[in-house]
Design goal:
InterPro entries: CheC-like_sf (IPR028976), Flag_FliM (IPR001689), FliN-like_C (IPR001543), SpoA-like_sf (IPR036429). The protein has about 325 residues and is of the alpha+beta class. Helices cover about 35% and strands about 25% of the residues. It is extended, with a radius of gyration of 35 Å.
Length: about 325
């Protein structure tokens, strides 16, 4: 944004130029120098800030879904939140992960390419200890994982794909599947070193253990939906799109809801003495005329004026008029 000078600043600048304290050529040269910026082609920015924010919002939902899933599976306190969302070269991401760690490679059908979920060993071993009946103590023996331990962790991580699918469901019907489980990042080469990837870092606490879960999403995966990550597109989609299945389910549930209807034949008041002395065949006179309309109540709220009658050998009432309350949308 260009800086706007006040009138006093403009007067001072003109005065300095007139007195020779400031050279106009130097000002022009300084302005040109400011417009030159160093650009590193190895860190090409392919995502706008708006798209980064959209990806962050998607994975905030993913963090909540993953928290719920792992809390149920591990039966302990789990808290996962988005720490950061960055775009970096793939090579930089690989260099940032530990030499031995938990790496889950998911395909992202129907999107091209694959997604990496990197789980810090502190967090991974806490999960494993809980699944095996422990208290969630972390350890570091990742180089010596047994086949049983590998199978247990793979099955757990495979089930996390449902949370990823649900988080992205508002944008695309993704069906992620776990393709591979690795512990050495040197064996994972999905894209070229200079390709841009989105790295979503999740701050994770499981019981007393804490660490990071990193999601690495290459640009090639997001390329088919990159336009949908704009706030303008999502606003248009949300205003036009209706979840018909949810709407139908809600409508069906409302239709099955039971309500109580009461037709009030009349009311009156008597003294306690009269009530205590009542006997068989006594008559109580109501305040309702015999040819007047009755009041029909819905869950004790007056809704209609009705008249009594019969329908198929049963007592019935016929609705004559709706009672308008303070909120005419009621009923």
């Amino acid at each position: 944004m260009e800086e706007i000078l006040s009138q006093n600043e403009i007067d001072a600048l003109l005065s300095a130029l007139s007195s020779g304290e400031m050279d106009a050529e130097e000002l022009k040269q300084e302005e040109n120098e400011k417009r030159v910026r160093v650009y590193d082609f190895k860190r090409a920015l392919r995502f706008s800030k708006e798209q980064i924010r959209s990806i962050g919002r998607i994975h905030e939902n993913y963090a909540r879904l993953l928290t719920t899933f792992l809390s149920g599976q591990l039966r302990t306190y789990v808290n996962i939140s988005v720490a950061s969302v960055d775009q970096v070269p793939y090579e930089e991401f690989i260099r940032s992960v530990p030499k031995m760690t938990f790496l889950n490679i998911f395909n992202a059908a129907p999107l091209p390419g694959r997604i990496i979920m990197e789980i810090n060993p502190n967090v991974g071993y806490s999960m494993l200890d809980r699944l095996l009946g422990g208290t969630g103590t972390s350890m570091n023996k990742i180089e010596n994982l047994t086949e049983i331990e590998t199978m247990i962790l793979s099955q757990l991580f495979e089930r996390t794909s449902d949370s990823l699918r649900d988080a992205w469901s508002g944008l695309i019907n993704m069906e992620p599947e776990l393709e591979k489980f690795e512990v050495n990042p040197q064996f994972v080469q999905m894209v070229s070193p200079n390709d841009t990837v989105i790295v979503v870092t999740l701050d994770t606490a499981i019981g007393e253990a804490s660490g990071m879960i990193n999601l690495c999403i290459p640009h090639i995966v997001l390329e088919p939906v990159i336009q949908k990550l704009s706030a303008h597109y999502q606003l248009q989609t949300n205003t036009k799109k209706k979840d018909h299945a949810a709407y139908d389910n809600l409508s069906a549930n409302i239709k099955r809801t039971e309500v109580e209807l009461k037709a009030i034949l009349g009311e009156t008041t008597i003294r306690i003495e009269q009530f205590l002395n009542m006997q068989k065949s006594d008559v109580i006179a109501l305040d309702q005329p015999i040819d007047g309309t009755l009041l029909l109540q819905l869950n004790n709220e007056p809704k209609f004026y009705v008249q009594p009658g019969r329908s198929k050998r049963k007592m019935a009432v016929q609705i004559l008029e709706e009672i308008k309350g303070g909120n005419e949308n009621d009923g």
